[in-house]
Design goal:
The complex is a heterodimer of chains A (115) and B (322). With 115 residues, chain A is an alpha/beta fold. Chain A contains four helices and five strands; from the N terminus they run ββαβαβαβα. The chains are: A alpha/beta (115), B alpha/beta (322).
Chain lengths: 115, 322
């Protein structure tokens, strides 16, 4: 899975697309991996732009949980942004909205991480 | 085949509190909004139109499920506190003079699945036969232990029924009370076992007290096979997915999300959420049921190959005909 990448100061925005499920989660995890190591105290902050993601299964949610755990342990910051309504529902139903901070737009997420 | 739920709560019996009952009365009276009803039928129709949590309750007894078959012998899964009412109804229906045969499948030996047996009236009556099946070595010892003083006043040796214990093995199917029964090992402290029961042209799966590790696709495929084409899967949905994979990882239970995913992959037709968390009230379980039905829709929209999956939340007293 290819992630689009853009930088605004210390904030990196990564864009994913399609379904994040048992078929794609491993590739998603591998694509995310290089960015996680730099997402630490004093380093980059990460925004996952979910705007083009149309479904996330339990396997995909677990990748996000592992990323969040790792980043938190490194005292870094990671958030999700611009979720489609149904993906937002999956986050709410699974209670992952209580684990990962989310923002309505990428711009709002970047602004929050830059402050 | 009918599936009758006598106990659906996990971990601990959970009676409704006075304030919870009052909340229901207030909600119903608010919904009625001062209207009057011309007949009991009209009143009943109004009550039935209200949310489940206001007009009813999921109940608080711990796991006990009856598989009602056409034959004269009885098939029961687990003996949580729900077994008390099951035993009382059996006694009322058949009387103490007509000996009955009860086949009991034990998922495991944690207390919430065993605590009802000392209050199961047929166990005290000579002429009854109770055959307890399971895959654990310690089943008989566990049954005898909970009858010992000072925990209980009647020793196991004083029970009047003829009680036997038979060991089952995973990977093999046995015929019990006219049903083909296959146990499956599940991830739970001390091990638990699910049961697939096929009889009278229907397939029923009881899979409580079972943790599913999201990262273990091999194990998931095993459960997809176990649930394959089932008419009803009773599934441990005690926690949210987020809790099950974080703060409550290794606690031995699963979530509604995993239940939907496995059942859809398996082509099952009905999913019953089961082993309800004791801290959840009826309104919360109603909300979880609505969320689970929505997740089933979202996932079916994402994967066109999945057939509709009916999602229920099991409650004490629910009967599902297969």
């Amino acid at each position: 899975m290819q992630l689009t990448e853009s930088r605004d100061g210390e904030v990196i925005t990564l864009g994913a697309g399609g379904r994040i499920d048992h078929e794609t989660s491993e590739a998603f995890q591998k694509a995310l991996e290089p960015f996680l190591s730099r997402c630490a105290e004093g380093g980059d902050a990460l925004v996952l732009d979910m705007g083009d993601v149309n479904y996330v299964s339990s396997v995909g949610l677990r990748v996000l949980l592992m990323a969040s755990k790792r980043v938190t342990a490194q005292k870094g910051r990671i958030v999700v942004a611009a979720m489609q309504p149904t993906v937002g529902e999956v986050f709410r139903i699974s209670h992952f909205d209580r684990i990962l901070p989310s923002y309505d737009s990428v711009a709002a997420a970047v602004a929050a991480l830059k402050t | 085949m009918d599936i009758r739920f006598w106990g659906t709560r996990g971990s601990l019996p959970t009676p409704m509190t006075a304030s919870q009952m009052q909340d229901k009365a207030i909600a119903l009276l608010k919904a009625a909004d001062g209207r009057s009803f011309a007949s009991d039928e009209e009143l009943s129709a109004f009550i039935e139109s209200q949310p489940f949590w206001t007009r009813s309750t999921y109940g608080g007894d711990t796991p006990c499920v009856e598989v009602v078959l056409e034959g004269e012998e009885h098939l029961i899964i687990d003996l949580g506190s729900g077994a008390r009412r099951l035993g009382s109804e059996m006694l009322a229906r058949f009387g103490p003079g007509a000996g009955q045969t009860y086949h009991v499948l034990m998922s495991h030996l944690h207390w919430d699945h065993l605590m009802g047996f000392p209050f199961f009236p047929p166990a005290y009556i000579p002429g009854n036969r109770i055959i307890v099946y399971g895959c654990h070595d310690a089943i008989e010892a566990s049954f005898r232990r909970q009858h010992r003083g000072p925990n209980f006043p009647v020793d196991f040796s004083h029970l009047g029924a003829n009680i036997e214990f038979r060991k089952l093995a995973t990977g093999s199917t046995v015929s019990i009370a006219g049903a083909d029964i296959t146990p499956k090992l599940q991830l739970h402290a001390g091990d638990s076992y699910g049961y697939r029961i096929e009889a009278e042209g229907a397939a029923f799966v009881y899979s409580s007290d079972s943790e599913h590790r999201i990262e273990d696709e091999h194990a998931a495929e095993g459960f997809v096979d176990f649930f394959n084409d089932a008419d009803l899967v009773v599934f441990d949905a005690m926690y949210s997915l987020a809790d099950a994979v974080s703060v409550k990882e290794d606690w031995g239970h699963s979530s509604n999300i995993i239940g939907v995913e496995l059942c859809q992959r398996a082509g099952a037709r009905r999913l019953a959420l089961f082993h309800h968390e004791p801290v959840y009230d009826d309104a919360r379980i109603d909300a979880i049921l609505a969320d689970t039905r929505r997740y089933e829709e979202i996932r079916r929209d994402a994967y066109s190959e999945y057939q509709p999956l009916e999602v229920l939340a099991a409650y004490d007293g629910l009967v599902v005909s297969l």
